[in-house]
């Protein structure tokens, strides 16, 4: 029955209604109409809104002859309120701190990542339009749009969570939405050790390497924990040093007191106004940084970052997508060649070897657990190839035959660093 139609005579109570997406959606539409008629501005007052929603739902259930059920009523009120001023079916998932990722493949298929493992979720949307309404509600405060003229969007929510959405005609199975939730409390070094991601002696080594101003590249696959490790290692940066961070979507939660956070900007609908990571790295070098942290190296900015590491900004760090530490070097070479760089392959490799000190490779195992798989020191060139000297391998610990390069009076105290790595873990 439509609220604007003549009310029917109340009937004998039936059993309590089944609380499903269909009933919630229908009540949502009816409540919206009545709230518009009431014109009380209730959306600005959550308590009054909830009370008015309760009244309207009770009236609707009574007119339809449903028996009164407090449990049913509360579930309906909660569902409608989520649709009115929240994110609908996603609300409980967003509130669950145990969930790290939410993946929507069309309205009828939702997956979540919990503890490093993907699992199907019982939450469903009514239809594709329902998905779009929720996503657009997320994007509205950010001034972003998602429609046929702009069918792909990437955004950072107010709480730091990242949202990527793509719709028809680019997505063939309905709206595809990926949400990477932002941790309210950043993990620390002790957390990674307790989780088994990093052995105690290796964590000590990595933190000392940061203190000694090693230039560090963290490599790994998607979701392997690159940004998490970068964030943890940044905690070893002395508070007196000025740090500039550059990210596509701000995720780093540095504990340092002197941090300047920069974020790239995508072009607008006319293709104008883009500010990329390369421009921000160049600008960062004019901001008197002691260190530069680049959230991810994946384009022209790689050359600028390597040059920054080579020109007095020791202790800078970045991440890169790669299947191994060796692949990380290959990817860096490829990205430098694809930039404006006009030098030879030999010069590209020389820049890499003089810029980087350590490559830390992280992996996510089949059990969902993330761990540091290997740590390598970037040596010089031999027969035109970048030399990578293994310092640590998961399961094997420190490489016992390794000899510390250089002397103790070198800028990086390798002998002191390696002694911490080769100490047995408790």
Q: How would you characterize this protein structure?
A:
With 426 residues, the protein is an alpha/beta fold. The chain has 3 domains: 21-85, no CATH class; 90-180, Beta-Lactamase (2-Layer Sandwich), CATH 3.30.450; 189-421, Rossmann fold, CATH 3.40.50.300. The chain is 34% helix and 20% strand. The chain is built from 13 helices and 15 strands. It has helices at residues 21-38, 46-63, 70-85, 91-95, 128-139, 189-194, 200-211, 226-234, 277-284, 301-309, 325-338, 345-355, 414-421; strands at residues 99-105, 110-114, 117-121, 152-156, 162-166, 176-180, 216-220, 243-247, 259-263, 291-294, 317-321, 358-364, 370-382, 385-393, 397-398. It has a 9-stranded mixed beta sheet with strand order 9-8-10-11-7-12-13-14-15, sandwiched between helices. Strand 14 and strand 15 form a beta hairpin. It starts with 20 loop residues before the first helix and ends in a 5-residue tail after the last helix. Mean pLDDT is 83; it is low at 1-13 and 400-410. This is CpaF family protein. It comes from Halomonas litopenaei.
Provide tags for this entry.
15 strands; disordered N terminus; nine-stranded mixed β-sheet; Beta-Lactamase; single chain; Rossmann fold; alpha/beta; P-loop_NTPase; 426 residues; 20% strand; 13 helices; 3 domains; six-stranded antiparallel β-sheet
């Amino acid at each position: 029955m439509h609220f604007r139609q003549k009310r029917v005579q109340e009937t004998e109570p039936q059993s309590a209604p089944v609380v499903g997406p269909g009933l919630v959606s229908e009540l949502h539409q009816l409540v919206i109409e009545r709230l518009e008629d009431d014109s009380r501005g209730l959306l600005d007052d959550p308590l009054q809104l909830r009370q008015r929603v309760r009244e309207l739902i009770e009236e609707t259930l009574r007119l339809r002859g449903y028996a009164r059920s407090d449990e049913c009523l509360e579930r309906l009120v909660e569902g409608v309120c989520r649709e009115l001023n929240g994110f609908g079916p996603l609300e409980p998932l967003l509130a669950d701190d145990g969930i790290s990722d939410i993946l929507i493949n069309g309205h009828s298929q939702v997956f979540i990542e919990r503890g490093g493992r993907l699992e199907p979720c019982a939450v469903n949307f009514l239809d594709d339009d329902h998905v779009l309404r929720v996503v657009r509600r997320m994007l509205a405060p950010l001034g972003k749009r998602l429609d046929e003229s702009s069918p792909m969007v990437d955004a950072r929510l107010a709480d730091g969570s990242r949202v990527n959405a793509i719709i028809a005609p680019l997505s063939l199975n309905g709206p595809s939405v990926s949400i990477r939730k932002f941790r309210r409390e950043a993990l620390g070094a002790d957390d990674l050790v307790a989780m088994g991601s990093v052995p105690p002696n290796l964590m000590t080594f990595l933190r000392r390497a940061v203190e000694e101003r090693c230039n560090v590249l963290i490599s790994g696959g998607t979701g392997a924990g690159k940004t998490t490790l970068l964030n943890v290692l940044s905690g070893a940066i002395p508070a007196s040093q000025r740090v500039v961070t550059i990210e596509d979507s701000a995720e780093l939660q540095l504990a340092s007191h002197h941090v300047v956070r920069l974020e790239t900007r995508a072009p607008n609908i006319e293709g104008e106004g883009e500010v990329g990571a390369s421009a921000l790295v160049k600008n960062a070098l004019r901001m008197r940084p002691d260190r530069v942290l680049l959230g991810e190296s994946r384009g022209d900015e790689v050359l600028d970052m390597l040059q920054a590491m080579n020109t007095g900004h020791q202790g800078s760090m970045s991440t890169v997508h790669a299947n191994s530490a060796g692949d990380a070097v290959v990817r860096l070479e490829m990205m430098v060649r694809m930039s404006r760089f006009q030098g030879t392959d030999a010069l590209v490799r020389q820049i890499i070897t003089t810029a980087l000190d350590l490559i830390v490779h992280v992996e996510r195992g089949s059990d969902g657990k993330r761990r540091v798989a290997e740590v390598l020191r970037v040596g010089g060139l031999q027969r035109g190839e970048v030399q990578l000297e293994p310092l640590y391998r998961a399961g094997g610990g420190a490489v016992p035959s390794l000899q510390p390069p250089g002397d103790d009076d070198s800028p990086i105290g390798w002998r002191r660093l390696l002694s911490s790595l080769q100490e047995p873990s408790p």
